[in-house]
Amino acid sequence: MIELVDVHKGFTVRDRKTRRKKRIEAVRGVTFSVCPGEIYGLLGPNGAGKSTTLRLIAGLMQAERGRLRVCGFDAEREPEQARACIGYLSGDLNVYGRFTPREFLKLFGQFQDMEAHVAEGRAQALMERLGLLDFMDVRMEGFSTGQKQKVSVARALLHDPGVVVFDEPTTGLDVLTAKTVLDLLRELRAEGRTVIVSTHVMPMVEDICDRVGILFDGILHGDAPLEQLLSDRGARNLDEVFFQLAAGEA
Ligand SMILES: Nc1ncnc2c1ncn2[C@@H]1O[C@H](COP(=O)(O)OP(=O)(O)OP(=O)(O)O)[C@@H](O)[C@H]1O
Ligand SMILES: [Mg+2]
Fold first, then answer.
1. Which ligand 1 atom is at minimum distance from the Cα of 168?
2. Same domain, 5 and 64
3. Which domain holds residue 92?
4. What is the pLDDT along the chain (250 residues), one digit of tens a residue?
């Protein structure tokens, strides 16, 4: 379970031209929950606050205000317990090129305090599920985007997390590789895990998301099944909703 109540997060940055400090309110009073056995789609245009929201859930940064609970643990007071039940896939493909997937996953198993044979077994099973078993002992420096993303997915799921937080999991992937990842997300849902993904891709949302929330300028609009969200706004697709929000109509 993921629960956010009135969560705020901003950043202070220096304006490149004027050199003056300014505040960016990246997440402004966001409230929503995701239940076990559900895939929640967090949508929104560039800079809307999707990655920031997911980083807050994953415990990589702290909210300035509001309440955030993951698996019943308070993100502020019980950060380690909360983090332990989360599998987080970041938007960037940061695998260590000098490592093979086996070495890389072994290392992450150690970070997660997993017993070596358990981590090895999980790594093997996930790499097989992702169709990458033949590459288990190949250095990752020459891997394609899709291969790196699959290893990142395996890393995120290695410790068998109850809550899965994936930031744009299919960006840069071809349809076949994207399908592998989406099928895996469906399986995780069927196993009763709590899943949240960010995206700006409509077909992916139609395909797998049970509920969606649209972030625009740090504010969450709509928190409903996709069809309801579209019909409430008289829109045919998500692009139309984005345009409405940009025009200040919604
Ligand atoms: N570490 C940071 N320091 C300063 N500003 C940040 C930081 N992280 C995010 N921001 C700013 O917060 C806002 C929201 O960024 P965020 O990455 O959450 O958007 P996003 O919805 O994930 O966008 P995209 O679709 O481009 O990935 C942006 O204005 C961004 O520049
Ligand atoms: Mg992002």
1. 27
2. yes
3. 86-160
4. 999 999 999 999 998 888 899 999 999 999 999 999 999 999 988 999 999 999 999 999 999 999 999 999 999 999 999 999 999 999 787 788 899 999 999 999 999 999 999 999 999 999 999 999 999 999 999 999 899 999 999 999 999 999 999 999 998 888 888 999 999 999 999 999 999 999 877 778 888 999 999 999 999 998 999 889 899 989 888 888 888 888 886 5
- Evaluate whether residue 116 is within a structural domain: yes
Whether 44 is in the pocket of ligand 1, judged by its Cβ within 6 Å, is yes
**Alpha-carbon torsion, ordered 93, 119, 82, 79, to 10 deg:** -80
Residues 11 and 134 in one domain: no
The amino acid at 125? A
Is 126 in the same domain as 80? no
How does DSSP assign 36-73, residue by residue? TTEEEEEE-STTSSHHHHHHHHTTSS--SEEEEEETTE
Residue 172 belongs to some domain of the structure: no
For residue 235, give both structure tokens: 């829109």
The whole model's pTM is what?
Answer: 0.94
Ligand 1 atom 28: residue of nearest CA: 47
Contact criterion met (CB below 8 Å) for 189 and 204: no
Q: Is 176 within the bounds of a domain?
A: no
Q: Residue 22: CB within 6 Å of ligand 1?
A: no
